[in-house]
Specification:
Radius of gyration: 18 Å
Number of domains: 1
Oligomer: single chain
Largest sheet: 6 strands, mixed
Strand order of the largest sheet: 2-6-5-4-7-8
Strand content: 15-25%
Shape: globular
Number of strands: 8
C-alpha cells in the first residue's frame, strides 16, 4: 500500500467520523425538540436592539425562525458570537427570522452598553421567565429552530457546530 492510498483511506475514515457526528448532532436536536410543540404567538420579552420597541414580539407567519437564548456571563455564548455575527446577513437573505434573547441578568442600559462594546448588531430582546419556560430553556446558550408553521423542529444547547446549524437552517426552510 503506497502513501497516497493510505492518505485516501485516512480521508475517508475522518470524513465518515465527521458525517456521523453531524448526523448524531441533528438527531439529538430533533429529538430534543419533540416535546416543544409550537411557538407561542406573542413573547413577553423586552426589545432592546433591532426590534420594534414598546410592542410585544410577534412571529411572522410563513417564515422559518431561529431563536438564540444567551447570557452576557456565559463563556460558551461568547464563543458562539463571531459565528452569529457572520451568519445574520445570510440568514436574512434566506428569509429566516433570527432573534436572540438575553437572560436579563443585566439592566437594559448595561446590556445596551455591552452590545455596543462587543459590536453585536443582531436583534436582541430580554427574555422574561415566562418566555424561558415557554421555550423550555434550561441552560445557556440554547438555539431553537422553528419551521414556517411555527413548529419547533430542532433544539440545541452549547457551542454551535456551524455545519449542523446551516443544515438545520436549510431544513426549517424546506419543511
Amino acid at each position: 500500500m503506497d502513501a497516497s492510498e493510505k492518505n485516501f483511506k485516512k480521508i475517508i475514515k475522518y470524513s465518515l467520523w465527521i458525517f456521523g457526528f453531524i448526523l448524531i448532532s441533528l438527531a439529538l436536536g430533533y429529538f430534543r425538540a419533540t416535546d416543544h410543540g409550537y411557538l407561542p404567538n406573542r413573547f413577553a420579552a423586552l426589545p432592546i436592539q433591532g426590534l420594534e420597541q414598546n410592542t410585544p414580539l410577534v412571529i411572522e407567519k410563513d417564515k422559518p425562525s431561529i431563536f438564540y437564548f444567551w447570557a452576557t456571563w456565559c463563556t460558551v455564548c461568547k464563543a458562539n458570537d463571531p459565528f452569529l455575527k457572520a451568519s445574520l446577513s445570510p440568514l436574512e437573505e434566506r428569509g429566516i427570522t433570527f432573534i436572540s434573547f438575553d437572560d436579563g441578568s443585566l439592566p437594559p442600559e448595561e446590556l445596551i452598553g455591552y452590545l455596543k462594546e462587543k459590536n453585536i448588531s443582531y436583534p436582541v430582546a430580554i427574555a422574561s421567565k415566562e418566555i424561558l419556560q415557554q421555550f423550555h430553556v434550561s441552560g445557556f446558550p440554547t438555539t431553537v429552530f422553528a419551521d414556517r408553521d411555527g413548529k419547533i423542529r430542532f433544539v440545541d444547547a452549547g457551542i454551535m457546530n456551524p455545519i449542523s446549524f446551516w443544515i438545520r437552517a436549510y431544513l426549517i426552510r424546506i419543511l
